[in-house]
């Protein structure tokens, strides 16, 4: 039986995931305080029903005052760094039941078995995994192991959905790629097109955190991989994008190095190398322990994201910089 009569603090509450976590917690019946510095203007969902506070979660005085003025049962940090976690530990230890951080499946590659799960090795630096993510997660889980600070680590795969340009087969989130598709121009795909990519819809991923809020202490010290249920190949991803955009583009399958050489302006080598690694995960643990039930497939997420791009006019020809309104970032890395 889930209990949502909880006071929840969301750090990063105006973000893609953070705003959806805040929305879900309010709708579930929690009393929610949301924190951001007030600088982010990225697309977000409505924040009504929560108390919004402007401040920096790395500012000791600000966080200490939050701890003095409020009583929180659950704290969620969607964009944590080690300093934020240390400060949260110092200000809230012994006073909260749960501390959730958003991490990434970027800790895992190269995958040794498919689908990978939470048992997959991740603590060593492989040259392909995100070293910052690994360090952060070790730090967070040590707070639980050594001090029983009630940390839970959520690791989303690639995030997709309304509000952001989706990843493309050049490894970034470049709107120029999808414009090429819309215009029927050829694009490149690394490898033979059979590399696996698994995306999680932003709404579904946020719901995992919300479900975790309703759980008891059994989630403390745990890691959860969250995503859609299945990975798809890059070839299928490309074909899905073409179907949404009514595109007759063709794909050229090339070694990553050749794509980098051909498109030095559009392709970042590290991103492409990362994309060329299988990302394929079993979300069974989150389903069993959190009751996580993602509604969208990897294909659905791409359809939703591209339909959002179309509705926003981001794929219109002659898009000027003024269309970069609302902080819609058109070229981003996967992190
Ligand atoms: N993109 C992907 O495909 C992917 C994949 C796996 C995991 N992830 C992880 O998923 C998370 C994404 O979360 P998101 O989508 O909600 O991020 P986001 O859209 O970038 O939003 C970041 C939020 O944090 C706030 N913020 C940043 N620094 C702050 C500070 N010092 N004090 C207070 N608020 C601060 C921002 O608002 P202000 O700037 O106004 O403060 C904003 O509300 C990240 O941890 C990322 O590493 C991403």
Structure described in brief:
Helices cover 36% and strands 16% of the residues. With 335 residues, the protein is of the alpha/beta class.
Describe this entry's structure for a reader:
By secondary structure, this protein is α/β, with parallel strands linked by helices. It folds into two domains: 7-159 and 200-226, NAD(P)-binding Rossmann-like Domain (Rossmann fold, 3-Layer(aba) Sandwich); 161-199 and 230-279 and 296-327, UDP-galactose 4-epimerase, domain 1. The chain has eleven helices and 13 strands. The chain has helices at residues 16-28, 60-69, 82-92, 131-147, 175-182, 202-214, 234-245, 256-262, 269-275, 284-290, 298-311, and strands spanning 7-11, 31-36, 51-54, 74-77, 98-102, 151-156, 158-160, 187-190, 196-197, 199-201, 223-226, 232-233, 251-254. It has a seven-stranded parallel sheet with strand order 3-2-1-4-5-6-11, with helices on both faces. Strands 7-10 form a two-stranded parallel ribbon. Helix 1 (16-28) links the parallel strand 1 (7-11) and strand 2 (31-36). It is globular. It starts with 6 loop residues before the first strand and ends in a 24-residue tail after the last helix. Residues 11-18, 35-40, 42, 56-58, 78-79, 102, 104, 156, 158-159, 334-335 line the site of NADP nicotinamide-adenine-dinucleotide phosphate.
